[in-house]
Amino acid sequence: MSQYVDSSLKLFALNSNIKLAEEIAQVIGVQLGKCSVSRFSDGEIQINIEESIRGGDVFVIQSTSDPVNEHLMELLIMIDALKRASAKTINIVMPYYGYARQDRKARSREPITAKLVANLLETAGASRVITLDLHAPQIQGFFDIPIDHLMGVPILADYFKNKNLQDIVIVSPDHGGVTRTRRLADRLKAPIAIIDKRRPKPNVAEVMNIVGQVEGKTAILIDDIIDTAGTITLAANALVENGAAEVYACCTHPVLSGPAIERIQNSKIKELVITNSIALPEEKKIDKIVELSVAPLIAEAIIRVYEKQSISALFD
């Protein structure tokens, strides 16, 4: 696809996931743009774009993952720099949208931070956002600019299809994930089950009971984000206690913070399948974890946006 080499398509990577950005650039057939991100001694971020982007269609790849605020601020400053350097369009490729879990007022005096982030991106000068598996699909409505919401389920489904597992059931770890669970179940032509859980406080999950038939079956748990892994490991243990033969788990966004890796290592999960929407440091890459790449999907979305083609086929 080297036809893009001398074109106005410009691809830049900030610090959150350079390896994924390099993969995307390779699939498209372009070089990553030259820019440097440095820090003043007090921690302020300085960005220098080291090539002309005047009149170009610029795509910036940055997941707002840990450290979330650093990566978000890098992105906002980059957008401002691109706008002042006369980029024609500024397209934000955000495989993981940080703050997405703060998407509504669940209690009094609570912020809706996912909306604030949308406002910040727009105010800075973003023209479009391309993202993957938003925690809540309604976040698309927080933007007044175009947003392309890609799905990770087809990538996960292809992996499990190739494993040829027998007698499977797709399991949602909570009621909120049923739609996602059904998407995977439809692709694998399998029934679903739901874990009914009660969460006494944030990041603490308490499993109650299982709705659906899991006895003797190969269970595949699916979630969009695995953070501290409390929910998913308790769910896996509950499935085994209820007679599941073996348990796999999968997610699009491996936040995997705090005790997550230790919990997964010590759990009943046979294999955890993730994508590289968030860069996983080497110390977290345990044998149980299988990483799939979202680079071909995102590269295809970028090409279609650049060529003004429909990308609705990629939503499936």
UniProtKB/TrEMBL annotation:
<feature type="binding site">
    <location>
        <position position="135"/>
    </location>
    <ligand>
        <name>Mg(2+)</name>
    </ligand>
</feature>
<dbReference type="InterPro" id="IPR000836">
    <property type="entry name" value="PRTase_dom"/>
</dbReference>
<dbReference type="GO" id="GO:0005524">
    <property type="term" value="F:ATP binding"/>
</dbReference>
<dbReference type="Pfam" id="PF14572">
    <property type="entry name" value="Pribosyl_synth"/>
</dbReference>
<feature type="binding site">
    <location>
        <begin position="101"/>
        <end position="102"/>
    </location>
    <ligand>
        <name>ATP</name>
    </ligand>
</feature>
<dbReference type="GO" id="GO:0016301">
    <property type="term" value="F:kinase activity"/>
</dbReference>
<dbReference type="InterPro" id="IPR029099">
    <property type="entry name" value="Pribosyltran_N"/>
</dbReference>
<feature type="binding site">
    <location>
        <position position="174"/>
    </location>
    <ligand>
        <name>Mg(2+)</name>
    </ligand>
</feature>
<dbReference type="InterPro" id="IPR037515">
    <property type="entry name" value="Rib-P_diPkinase_bac"/>
</dbReference>
<keyword id="KW-0963">Cytoplasm</keyword>
<comment type="subunit">
    <text>Homohexamer.</text>
</comment>
<keyword id="KW-0547">Nucleotide-binding</keyword>
<feature type="binding site">
    <location>
        <position position="223"/>
    </location>
    <ligand>
        <name>D-ribose 5-phosphate</name>
    </ligand>
</feature>
<dbReference type="GO" id="GO:0006164">
    <property type="term" value="P:purine nucleotide biosynthetic process"/>
</dbReference>
<comment type="function">
    <text>Involved in the biosynthesis of the central metabolite phospho-alpha-D-ribosyl-1-pyrophosphate (PRPP) via the transfer of pyrophosphoryl group from ATP to 1-hydroxyl of ribose-5-phosphate (Rib-5-P).</text>
</comment>
<keyword id="KW-0479">Metal-binding</keyword>
<feature type="binding site">
    <location>
        <position position="199"/>
    </location>
    <ligand>
        <name>D-ribose 5-phosphate</name>
    </ligand>
</feature>
<dbReference type="GO" id="GO:0006015">
    <property type="term" value="P:5-phosphoribose 1-diphosphate biosynthetic process"/>
</dbReference>
<dbReference type="GO" id="GO:0004749">
    <property type="term" value="F:ribose phosphate diphosphokinase activity"/>
</dbReference>
<dbReference type="GO" id="GO:0002189">
    <property type="term" value="C:ribose phosphate diphosphokinase complex"/>
</dbReference>
<feature type="binding site">
    <location>
        <begin position="42"/>
        <end position="44"/>
    </location>
    <ligand>
        <name>ATP</name>
    </ligand>
</feature>
<feature type="active site">
    <location>
        <position position="197"/>
    </location>
</feature>
<dbReference type="GO" id="GO:0009156">
    <property type="term" value="P:ribonucleoside monophosphate biosynthetic process"/>
</dbReference>
<keyword id="KW-0418">Kinase</keyword>
<dbReference type="InterPro" id="IPR029057">
    <property type="entry name" value="PRTase-like"/>
</dbReference>
<protein>
    <recommendedName>
        <fullName>Ribose-phosphate pyrophosphokinase</fullName>
        <ecNumber>2.7.6.1</ecNumber>
    </recommendedName>
</protein>
<feature type="domain" description="Ribose-phosphate pyrophosphokinase N-terminal">
    <location>
        <begin position="9"/>
        <end position="125"/>
    </location>
</feature>
<comment type="similarity">
    <text>Belongs to the ribose-phosphate pyrophosphokinase family. Class I subfamily.</text>
</comment>
<dbReference type="InterPro" id="IPR000842">
    <property type="entry name" value="PRib_PP_synth_CS"/>
</dbReference>
<keyword id="KW-0067">ATP-binding</keyword>
<feature type="binding site">
    <location>
        <begin position="227"/>
        <end position="231"/>
    </location>
    <ligand>
        <name>D-ribose 5-phosphate</name>
    </ligand>
</feature>
<dbReference type="InterPro" id="IPR005946">
    <property type="entry name" value="Rib-P_diPkinase"/>
</dbReference>
<keyword id="KW-0808">Transferase</keyword>
<dbReference type="Pfam" id="PF13793">
    <property type="entry name" value="Pribosyltran_N"/>
</dbReference>
<dbReference type="GO" id="GO:0005737">
    <property type="term" value="C:cytoplasm"/>
</dbReference>
<keyword id="KW-0545">Nucleotide biosynthesis</keyword>
<dbReference type="GO" id="GO:0000287">
    <property type="term" value="F:magnesium ion binding"/>
</dbReference>
<keyword id="KW-0460">Magnesium</keyword>
<comment type="pathway">
    <text>Metabolic intermediate biosynthesis; 5-phospho-alpha-D-ribose 1-diphosphate biosynthesis; 5-phospho-alpha-D-ribose 1-diphosphate from D-ribose 5-phosphate (route I): step 1/1.</text>
</comment>
